[in-house]
Design goal:
single chain, 200 residues, mainly alpha, Arc Repressor Mutant, subunit A, elongated
Length: 200
Amino acid sequence: MPIDQDSDRQKTKWDLSQESFESLLKWLDSDREKAGRRYEDIRGRLIKIFGSRGCYEPDLLADETINRVAKRVTDIEKTYEGDPALYFYGVANKIHLEQLRKQKPAPKLPAVPALDDFEQEYDCLERCIGQLPADSRVLVLEYYENEQHAKIVHRQRLAERFGIGLNALRIRAHRARLILRQCIIECLQRKQAAHLEYSN
């Protein structure tokens, strides 16, 4: 399945470049290792903030917040004083208000059927991963690897392999995860229906 770069880039007005990302990390901390941990902590808190407010796709909203800060970081760092995290949270509040003005009902996913057999769940996972397009399969298997700073570096390299920016990579990984989840749900539902039919 070909990589559709244009459709991903249309999701955001501005894509996070490597240079901007490096400037953002430098603003968070002069020590790159500490900056990486700080970045992951702030992003995690942003996701929790949006999630606790009932926002759909809180991880994408967190990335949009980071993008907006990164776009202005060279100007911000000249005058801003205090904890950088507070600036991110201020931008997050603004984005949340924007979402409230144009909010649409979040699509409801069916509940995952309860099955006692772990092997059936694992079988569905394997099958669904195997059905994903090659690019999406790579994202699902590699996007969430490693921890902290290593995770950041790995995602940068993964984005380079796909020839896209970090934001486009996050969007694509999120889409692949949703497709995988839906496939697993449907697979488990079929197994549950077959189990009930056999029991009767």
